[in-house]
Specification:
about 375 residues; eight-stranded mixed beta sheet; 10 helices
Length: about 375
């Protein structure tokens, strides 16, 4: 049995942000990531202004990494579209590049980064985890940062949830001059029954295509789903080139709108393990970064027992942003709601700006530092 001060499970933005913050304060944080090297993730290619602010606070310049600037949102439903200016500059950057930069920074700060070490189960009472090689570790504090993936022993509590979880899909579209020209400076959201697709340019000129769909729509398989979506979203079909993409990455069981009700002493649930916001809100990476930083700060200020109070504060602060995002997601999921949404935004585009601002819960803001989550 190996005992450490702070054990972080998951090397995505939330886990890396916690590791950086702890290591810079002199805590020898240990971060375990199941991936042995650079990799992409299904979600997270869009960096909102709040995510960019969080990254700057950690010492990361997303644009120096090649991020593509985004200043406009293009919303498309059937043959209708509305284009809106974002409140502040955003960016498109692959998770492969972003996650590598953050993990590298954690190691430079002094964190012990263990790559290719998958954690199979956890015992919250003992703040212990079991690795796939049979090794067992305990931590004074355990930071759960496994993203949308569940960890046995610390799975998200979904009892009483009426809506079944959604599924997320991701594909990469190759470099194409016409598509790059049309997507330059913009993110597109294509709405269809039971879901939506986001499309943006990445640092290497490829386009990142992410979809969120009701899981029941996947009953016939991905190919059948994409055929249906291409018929419902003709502008998306044009962007894809009319064909069915050969391969997708997928993650199932995404409980949008979920917030952790409570936690155990010493267990900090960060990122998607603390609150899952609909990806059309574009705030997921900011929540991951902000929660990782503020959870680490809570531990530094109050020790492992600070986890309970910190989790309660995160739940309170995430209520309104998640509620707004869920209202938008459900409203856009059916033809009547989509039609009303498109018409309202055409008449009053400022509503889109307000909606974007109301879905933010990050601790850092464009104008400076606010109190933590």
């Amino acid at each position: 049995m190996r005992d450490v001060a702070a054990l972080i499970v998951g090397g995505g933005p939330a886990g890396a942000a916690a590791a950086i913050t702890l290591a810079r304060a002199g805590v020898r944080a240990h971060l375990a990531d199941r991936n042995a090297g650079p990799h992409d993730a299904v979600c997270g290619g869009f960096l909102g202004w709040d995510a960019l602010a969080e990254l700057r606070g950690l010492g990361v310049d997303a644009f120096a990494l090649g991020a593509r600037p985004i200043g406009r949102l293009r919303l498309l439903a059937g043959d209708r579209h509305v284009e809106l200016a974002l409140p502040h500059r955003a960016a498109g950057l692959s998770r492969r590049v972003l996650d590598e930069a953050l993990i590298g920074l954690a190691g430079e700060a002094g964190a012990v980064v263990m790559r290719g070490r998958a954690v199979r189960a956890a015992d919250p009472a003992g703040r212990a985890v079991r690795f796939d090689d049979g090794g067992e570790w305990t931590g004074e504090a355990l930071f759960l940062a496994t993203g949308k993936h569940e960890l046995r022993g610390l799975s998200r509590e979904l009892d009483g949830r009426k809506e079944p979880p959604s599924a997320g899909l991701r594909a990469v579209l190759p470099v194409d001059a016409a598509r790059s020209r049309d997507l330059a400076g913009a993110i597109e959201l294509h709405l269809f029954d039971g879901g939506y697709a986001g499309l943006l340019l990445q640092e290497d000129g490829t386009a990142n295509l992410c979809l969120s769909v009701d899981r029941e729509r996947l009953a016939g398989g991905v190919a059948a789903l994409m055929t249906e979506i291409m018929a419902e979203a003709p502008r998306l079909a044009e962007r894809v080139g009319g064909g069915i993409l050969p391969s997708f990455e997928a993650v199932a069981g995404v409980p949008y709108g979920w917030r952790a009700k409570s936690t155990s002493p010493g267990i900090f649930r960060i990122g998607d393990q603390g609150a899952v916001i609909a990806s059309l809100a574009g705030d997921g990476i900011a929540i991951a970064l902000g929660s990782g930083v503020s959870a680490a700060q809570a531990y530094l200020n109050g020790g492992a027992d600070a986890a309970v109070g910190w989790q309660a504060r995160m739940r309170r602060r995430s209520f309104r942003p998640l509620a707004v995002a869920e209202a938008l997601r459900h409203g856009a999921a059916g033809p009547t709601g989509r039609g009303l949404l498109m018409q309202l935004l055409r008449w009053m585009p400022e509503l889109g700006v307000q909606a974007a601002l109301l879905t933010r819960i990050s601790a850092r803001r464009t104008g400076g530092r606010q109190s933590g989550v």
